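Onboarding guide, step 5: your first structure request.
Type a short instruction followed by the sequence, for example:

Predict the 3D structure of this protein.
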Amino acid sequence: MGLNKNRVQADAVVVGAGPAGASAAFYLSRAGLDVIVLERAVFPRDKTCGDGLTPAAVVELLRMGIDPRKSPGYQTNEGLVVIGAGNRVELPWPEQASRPGFGSSRPRISLDQSLAMHARTQGAKVWEGCNVTGPVVEGGRVVGVQVARKADPLAGPTAKDKELFEALTPKEAWPTEGKRQAATADREQVSQLPTEFEVRARLVVDCGGVAAKLATRAGRIKLENRPMGVAARTYYRSDRAKEANMESQLELWDGKPGESNLLPGYGWMFPLAGGVVNVGLGSVSSTSAATKLPYKQIFKSWTAATPSQWGYNSENQIGQMKSAALPMAFNRKPQYQGGLALIGDAAGMVSPFNGEGIAPALAAGRMLADAATHAFARTGEAAFDSAMEAFVQHMSDEWGGYYRLGTVFVRLIERPKIMQACTRYGLPVDRLMVAVHKLLSDGYERHGGSIDDRVIAFLARLVPKV
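The system replies with structure tokens like these:
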């Protein structure tokens, strides 16, 4: 890393230290590249999310050397329970050659910090309190980013984030002394930098989330014909944290199911470690105009009608209810061009089928590093860009057709009568739901597997890629 008063030089600069940024930094650093990650907040910091980790996410953690079954802070689960139209269906995670037969969960306030610290073990620098204000462009290429120090990282996180972290994270999952020392070393380095500076790099990676401010300022405009979801969630202390499965409610009622008012949206309950559950609701629109619903009022009406023993009340609530947009189906392109790559929410990688963003974000970081390893071995911008096109192709091959199917799925379930028919007549058919479970959770084998896997893979290859 080259360092002077106003300019820092690295091989790659990663904007945002969420799952996408941490994964990219981990793999790029492991490949021997000099990597700087710029995170606007100071860890631990909260992010709105359901916190669920399907087997597609778990396998990426395992690839990074993290086993949720053996790592404190994670809660393993066996599958998904789906409830709707008087039906309750238990769907175990399928045991696949390419994915484990279990899922997990962990609050983002501790997950993101732990992944960023894991990236440090490979040599990545994670600089907190650094707000990226725009790209540095030369000759039509993005060659770096402009940075303004937003906060003194040595001062630590906000009081609210610190309180939430301590409430949601078992003490055995708090960072070790060694990891705290590594974080302090990075924070001390940041504190010595001027309030405004540049980071120059041959590869710039925007992992800055749904706002994608860097990508937008570099001219990557979001596509209006992609689905957009909205999710809202909070935390409760509840005995339901002991349950073995995540839960999805396809119908929300303000009283007794089937005998009261049906509310818009869908709901979930994900068990977490430490006797806590993540409870939330969401909706999805087939266009970039997210549905405008009174989420707080819907949430209040729904949770007030749930059984009292679940504990969904103000006395058990931890932290505030928060909401966030979910950009889906590659809603911002190209994923690489002229030195700038996009992954995670910045690239609109949330699945239209189930709203999951962590799994594709982690996988995209790995794919990006695979291509970048070859790109950095080449001389000249044209050769570098040519090698990086392998990353774009890999993303398209992995999710292009699958997300196209997802956009069709969203258009169908937007129609209440179709959704009601699917819920009423589809949920009771066990054989059908096994295949649907694989489809919605991205749990199908891309090659080989059962007849279900082969049919889904065939359809994903058949349709035009998004």
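Each response can be followed by summary notes, for example: The mean pLDDT is 95.
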